[in-house]
Amino acid sequence: GSTDFDLFRTSEEHEMLRESVRALAEAKIAPFATEVDEEGRFPQEALDALVANDLHAVHVPETYGGAGADALATVIVIEEVARVCASSSLIPAVNKLGSLPVILSGSEELKAKYMAPLAKGDAMFSYCLSEPEAGSDAAGMKTRAVRDGDFYVLNGVKRWITNAGVSEYYTVMAVTDPEKRSKGISAFVVEKGDEGVSFGAPEKKLGIKGSPTREVYFDNVRIPADRMIGAEGTGFATAMKTLDHTRVTIAAQALGIAQGALDYAKGYVQERKQFGKAIAEFQGIQFMLADMAMKIEAARQLTYAAAAKSERTDSDLTFFGAAAKCYASDVAMEVTTDAVQLLGGYGYTRDYPVERMMRDAKITQIYEGTNQIQRIVMARNLP
Ligand code: CAA
């Protein structure tokens, strides 16, 4: 039977999932991580391996043909993939981000139509909220959706869209009533093949180079009105509710990157000899590793607690999602920077993976809301 102590221990099923994802990630994703980063190419091998093992969109409910994983299982999948390749971890993470608005607020028809191909691995999903002039102030968006009979016509530009061009489906937030600011925003599903949809050139980024980030253009894109997710005017609330859940997945990504850096550095200091002994024998090195492990564990506890709240409707998820994302991403930046330091000059070169991890970690402090925005969200929702 379960006791109160079990609250602080992941279940056997979750740990078995971790073992199998770790083995898969080591065998099928890690071997390409350097190449994917250097060439800035999509990690097709990772997508294939994730789809073959039904790990590309584990959050999709069973009713719609998905694996029906809970939020903690989803976190573990993302964490273990990010441990070897942050770019690849954006496949399960952004599939959740893009599709959660439909799962949370969409009609049964929308769910049935769009979740099945996602669950099967035939289509990926992206999330279009940010614009060139509307990043932190998401409600300041300009993209318009104008009703025309049984259709809506979309015009505008979305920026920083993760996996743009690769994804088949896009959840797009657009203004339906400019008078009402956040209450005048609605959400829609747009397909890559819809006439008038096009993409900008891939951004040249510091990290997560294997995950394409592009602008998405909507030029008189005419879509059936039943592609609206939920009622008119509820799109901003849906977008925010979605982020409450998916900031936990970015925390998971950050956690995985940090763990990967610690694991690598831990092995390195045992091999590297200076002054006649392994540098792991120096207390200055041991203290750094101890701090790194301590911070990772604190980030993990907060992230898993947030994931548990993600499953409960009566919870203070808004605070916890923001806190987990903010804290874990700061830890990822600190730990990866320390990992580079532990490898010294070698750590600064592309011959070792830690500089990639440091570059990849940086984005987790920026996307799905900067860590400054997370503090606004936390302050407005103190527990
Ligand atoms: N749950 C449900 N509804 C919510 C909500 C939540 N967590 N937060 C806001 N809402 C709704 C409410 O209906 C609210 O109205 P009421 O006040 O009447 O309840 C309405 O939205 C407006 O909310 P705010 O007044 O809080 O809106 P705001 O303009 O002050 O903005 C903000 C709030 C927190 C700053 C928000 O703009 C924000 O989160 N900004 C950051 C945007 C962001 O995270 N972007 C990430 C892009 S996605 C990405 O990065 C993906 C990727 O590439 C991987």
TrEMBL record:
InterPro entries: Acyl-CoA_DH_CS (IPR006089), Acyl-CoA_Oxase/DH_mid-dom (IPR006091), Acyl-CoA_Oxase/DH_mid-dom_sf (IPR046373), AcylCo_DH-like_C (IPR036250), AcylCo_DH/oxidase_C (IPR009075), AcylCoA_DH/ox_N (IPR013786), AcylCoA_DH/ox_N_sf (IPR037069), AcylCoA_DH/oxidase_NM_dom_sf (IPR009100). Residues 127-221 form the Acyl-CoA oxidase/dehydrogenase middle domain. Its cofactor is FAD. It comes from the Bacteria. Keywords: FAD, Flavoprotein, Oxidoreductase. Residues 11-122 form the Acyl-CoA dehydrogenase/oxidase N-terminal domain. Residues 233-382 form the Acyl-CoA dehydrogenase/oxidase C-terminal domain. Belongs to the acyl-CoA dehydrogenase family. This is Acyl-CoA dehydrogenase. It comes from Streptomyces thermolineatus.
